[in-house]
């Protein structure tokens, strides 16, 4: 798992060995957020999920139970469970999921490879939300 909490983390991530599509997506999001003049730590926590990472580990890193609807308490697996992501998009072999966590707009962004070797709970959670 790669956790990006601020601009320094992003800079380190972008010079590391990354999938080229992921590097492009991270660069695009960094540039878009920089237009607002904010450091990343003021607006977003980005988590890049890797094969072997579990939903529980992602939730622990995020500090948010993304497999639980925080409004009604329903959990992933409940037939009436609705995730609280603003959107989930598929692009270049990656799923990007955005969840706004506070009234000031601070958000959590997950980048998850759209592959079969990802924790089935994470795949189920995101794939049911993918924008058409």
Properties at a glance:
alpha+beta, 132 residues, 4 helices, five-stranded mixed beta sheet
3D structure, described in words:
This protein has helices at residues 7-14, 20-34, 55-62, 120-127, and strands at residues 2-4, 44-48, 87-91, 94-100, 107-113. The chain is α+β, with helices and mostly antiparallel strands and 132 residues long. The protein has one domain (2-127). A 5-stranded mixed β-sheet has the order 1-2-5-4-3. A hairpin with a 2-residue loop joins strand 3 (87-91) and strand 4 (94-100). Helix 1 runs antiparallel to helix 2. The chain starts with a strand and ends in a 5-residue tail after the last helix. The mean pLDDT is 92.
Fold topology:
Layout (H helix, E strand, L loop, with lengths): L1 E3 L2 H8 L5 H15 L9 E5 L6 H8 L24 E5 L2 E7 L6 E7 L6 H8 L5
